[in-house]
Design goal:
The chain has 330 residues and is α/β, with parallel strands linked by helices. It has eleven helices and ten strands. It has two domains: 2-116 and 296-314, Nucleotidyltransferase, domain 5; 126-290, Nucleotidyltransferase, domain 5 (2-Layer Sandwich). It is globular, with a radius of gyration of 20 Å. The model is unreliable at 323-330 (pLDDT under 50). It binds 5'-O-[(R)-(carboxyoxy)(hydroxy)phosphoryl]adenosine and zinc ion. Zinc ion binds next to helix 4.
Length: 330
C-alpha cells in the first residue's frame, strides 16, 4: 500500500510517500525555523501563511523524489491534530483536495501516533512496549499492548519538555529553538547550578517542567541583581541534567513496572544527544528504539507510517471532511 502523507501541524511543511508503513520513498520537509527565529518562537498566523505558500511545492517535490504520480497512490493521509489549528487546516485542505480530485481514499492521523510510529520505520516495534513522547507540545508515557492500542499512564501537568527547553533557551539569549543548542552547550559545561528534579516521585508517572523553568529564571534574576554573569554552558548542563534525571528515571520505572519488551522514545526531544547517551548507560536490560534524527522532529514520513496501521485498525475515511482530534484522543 502506497501512502501519500501530509504534515503541517506546526512550523514544518512536509509531504512523504511511504510504502506499507515502512519504506520511505520520499520525505520532503520544509522548515520555517529561520522565519520564526526572528520572533523567538512560532507565530501561528505566520506559520499558516507559509504553509499555504509552500504546500504545493512540497507536494510536487515529494512525488518527483519518489518517482510516482497520483495513479500510484492508494491512500492520502494527513495530520488532523493536535497542532496549530490554522496550520493543520492548510494540510487538511491540501490533502482532501488531492484525494478528492484523484478519487483516492483519505485518512486523518493523530500527530502523536505519528511520532510513535516514526520509530517503527527503521526498527520493529515489540509488544508490550513503553513509549515516551517528548516534543515541543507533549510529554507523555504511553503503554502499548499491541499496534494502535494506547494507554496514557502519565503526562506533563504544565509545560512540555521541549517547550521548557525553548523557554530556557530564550532566557539565556539563545536563538529559537533552544533545544538543540542547549543540548550542544550542555556537553561543554558542568552541572553546577543545583536545579530541582521536579516530580521525581517514585510512584507517579506524571511530569512537570514549569517549576524547573522558574528555577532557571530565578537564578538568572538574582545573578543580574548582584551584577554576576551566568555561565551559559554550566546552566545548560545543569538544566539538561535535571531534565534527564527526571525523564530517564520515569521511563525506567514505567518500563520495569509494566515489564515491557521494549522502550520507544520519540518526538523532537528524542533528538537530544544527552538523552540518548544517558538512556544507553542507565537502561541495559530492555531494548530501546529511537528514530534517527530526521524522523524525531516533525515530518510526514511518520504520518505515512502511522497511517498504514491506523488504516488497518479503522479503515479510511471517505467523505473528505476531517474533524480536529483532541490531544489525548488517539
Ligand atoms: O516534535 P517536534 O518537532 O514538534 C512538536 O510536535 O512539538 O519537537 C520540537 C521540539 C522543540 O521544542 C525543540 O527545541 C525540541 O523538540 N528539540 C530538542 C532537540 N532537538 C529538538 N530538545 C532538546 N534537545 C535536542 N537535541
Ligand atoms: Zn511533533
Amino acid at each position: 500500500m502506497r501512502i501519500l502523507a501530509v504534515e503541517s501541524s506546526c512550523d514544518e511543511t512536509s509531504v512523504a510517500i511511504v510504502e506499507d508503513g515502512k519504506k520511505v520513498l520520499s520525505n520532503v520537509v520544509l522548515s520555517q525555523i529561520d522565519i520564526h527565529k526572528n520572533y523567538g518562537g512560532v507565530v501561528p498566523e505566520i506559520a499558516s501563511r507559509h504553509h499555504i505558500e509552500n504546500m504545493t511545492i512540497v507536494f510536487d517535490q515529494a512525488l518527483k523524489a519518489a518517482n510516482v504520480t497520483e495513479k500510484d497512490i492508494d491512500l492520502v493521509a494527513v495530520t488532523e491534530g493536535p497542532g496549530l489549528i490554522g496550520s493543520l487546516l492548510v494540510g487538511i485542505n491540501a490533502a482532501s483536495t488531492y484525494a478528492f480530485a484523484h478519487n483516492i481514499p483519505l485518512m486523518g492521523v493523530n500527530h502523536m501516533v505519528g511520532h510513535i510510529y516514526s520509530a517503527n520505520i527503521e526498527h520493529e516495534m515489540k509488544f508490550p512496549l513503553m513509549a515516551m513522547l517528548v516534543s515541543g507540545g507533549h510529554t507523555e508515557l504511553v503503554y502499548m499492548k499491541d499496534h494502535m492500542q494506547f494507554e496514557i499512564l502519565g503526562e506533563t501537568l504544565d509545560d512540555a519538555v521541549g517547550e521548557a527547553y525553548d523557554k530556557v533557551g530564550r532566557m539565556l539569549g539563545l536563538p529559537y529553538p533552544g533545544g538543540p543548542l542547549i543540548d550542544k552547550l550542555a556537553h561543554l559545561g558542568q552541572d553546577t547550578y543545583n536545579l530541582p528534579r521536579p516530580m521525581l516521585d517514585p510512584n507517579g508517572y506524571d511530569f512537570s517542567f514549569s517549576g524547573l523553568k522558574s528555577a532557571v529564571n530565578n537564578v538568572i534574576y538574582h545573578a543580574n541583581r548582584k551584577g554576576e554573569t551566568i555561565d551559559i554552558n554550566n546552566m545548560c548542563a545543569s538544566f539538561q541534567a535535571s531534565v534527564l534525571d527526571v525523564l530517564v528515571t520515569k521511563i525506567d520505572k514505567a518500563a520495569k513496572d509494566y515489564q515491557v519488551k521494549q522502550i520507544l522514545i520519540a518526538g523532537g526531544v528524542a533528538a537530544n544527544k544527552g538523552l540518548r547517551e544517558r538512556l544507553s548507560t542507565t537502561i541495559k536490560d530492555i531494548e530501546i528504539i529511537i528514530p534517527s534524527m530526521a524522523y524525531c522532529t516533525d515530518n510526514a514520513a511518520m504520518i505515512g507510517a502511522a497511517a498504514y496501521y491506523t488504516y488497518k485498525d479503522k479503515g479510511a475515511l471517505d467523505n473528505y471532511i476531517l474533524g480536529g482530534q483532541s490531544s489525548l484522543d488517539y
